[in-house]
Amino acid sequence: MKIDKLKIKNFRNISKIEIEPSGGLNIFTGANGQGKTNLLEAIFVLATGSSFRRGYDINLTQYKTEGYALGARHSLDGRDISTELLFSVNYDKRYLINKKRSRHNHKDRIRVVIFTPDDLLLIKGSPSKRRAFLDFVLKQISNEYLYDFDNYISVLNKRNNYLKKNQTESHAFKIINEVFVEKAVRVIVQRLHFVGVMEEICQPIYNLINQSQGEMKLKYALSFEIESDKINRDVLQAALRQQLEALQGEERKRRKTLVGPHLDDINIYKDGRAAKIYASQGQQRNMVICLKITELLAFHKVKGFYPILLLDDVLSELDDDKKKVLIKFLQTADFQTFLTAVNLEGIEHNGTAQYQLEEGRVERKE
Fold first, then answer.
1. Distances 227 to 190, 191, 243, 247 between C-alpha atoms, Å
2. Is 78 left (phi over 0), alpha (psi -120 to 50) or beta?
3. N or C, fewer C-beta in 10 Å, the chain?
4. What helix, strand, coil percent values describe the chain, rounded to 5?
5. Measuring CA to CA, which residue among 321, 125, 163, 179 is closest to residue 252?
């Protein structure tokens, strides 16, 4: 998947941008506050329907305008696809694929992997941050996962309502319990599989960025114990039922569900030890960047095509040697990248598409 043409109008500080980006690495430079992150945000909003930053659509609209318009032409499986997202303060928000009104889970939609400085919390932040990371990519990969995840959250909320109302002795609660187990395991199985794919990929990427210094590992961490050496759907269901039974008294006391995929985590290890505890801040930043590239490559392994990679100010998180390694990797990669940076001092970037952003305007640099 590659964006062949991008149009942005009245979005944040961008009045109008029209570019035909390279199919490989595209670098956008400029001082802070000139619109670099806004450009990446526009691509993200076009792909997902919402921003990675807080704010309603009205907050994304350029000051003193009546709405924004985002559009792209991208290629997928040898086909040219047009995507538009139109927001008006007076009317509504319309999403179109090939000029036809569509939903944001359309099979031909743009898919993205994004790094922002906030992602540095992936290692040392709360488990909810890592769950959100996993859910975001899986929802882009699979509409089945999107459906299963939404169903799980719905059943979880119903189960919590029974606990809050102290109605755990009812026949309805027993039925909810069985449905909860089934929906939970469907989510867990898909997460386990994808983390397994990422586990195979992350070490080679970590070796590449770090010149084979050290080890990085990932492991999906369940919120309940499994005694069997084998993990399959039946084993997971039996273990989850057993844990729910063991936690009956505590759940009634606390009036909420204390086990399930809404409490699972991803354990990330540096040289066999928990990275959130033992890795330095510099090592954690490096590992997050490796994790994002791993996410993209795992996406490709599952789906057979690459999403678009969006990297916001990633170079400021790396030392000079790692910057050079990353840029060289991106220059020769088969996927398309949009990267922002204040400047490229000391970085070899000849032959790379480069743009200068100033006050929301973009200019291609030769």
1. 20, 20, 12, 17
2. left
3. C
4. 45, 25, 30
5. 163
Could you tell me the residue ranges of all domains in the chain? 2-111+307-365, 122-275
Residues 6+ apart with CB under 8 A from 144: 190
* Cα–chain center distance at 300: 14
Q: In this structure, how many other beta carbons lie within 10 angstroms of the beta carbon of residue 137?
A: 22
Q: How far apart are CA 366 and CA 362, in angstroms?
A: 13
Q: Give the single-character DSSP code of 61.
A: B
Quickly count: other Cβ atoms within 10 Å of residue 11's Cβ: 27
Q: At what angle do helices 171-210 and 143-164 cross, to 10 degrees?
A: 130
Taking the model in full, what pTM does it have?
A: 0.93
The CA–CA distances, whole Å, from 324 to 60, 111, 348 equal 34, 27, 7
Classify domain 122-275 at the CATH class level: mainly alpha
CATH fold for the domain made of 2-111+307-365: Rossmann fold (3.40.50)
Query: Are 19 and 6 a contacting pair, CB within 8 Å?
Result: yes
Question: Which residues on neighbouring strands pair with residue 18, listed in sequence order?
Answer: 7
Per-residue pLDDT of the chain (366 residues; tens, 9 = 90+): 999 999 999 999 999 999 999 999 999 999 998 899 999 999 999 999 999 988 788 989 998 899 999 999 999 988 999 999 999 988 889 999 999 999 888 999 999 999 998 898 999 999 999 999 999 999 999 999 999 999 999 999 999 999 999 988 889 999 999 999 999 999 999 999 999 999 999 999 999 988 767 899 999 999 999 987 788 999 999 999 999 999 999 999 999 999 999 999 999 999 999 999 999 888 898 899 999 999 999 999 999 999 999 999 998 888 888 888 899 999 999 999 999 998 887 777 777 899 999 988 988 886
- The residue with tokens 């916001």 is 312
Cα 249 from Cα 47, distance rounded (Å): 44
Cα distances (Å, whole numbers) of residue 301 to 167, 187, 193, 201, 217: 45, 20, 12, 10, 18
Residues 6+ apart with CB under 8 A from 15: 9, 62, 360, 361
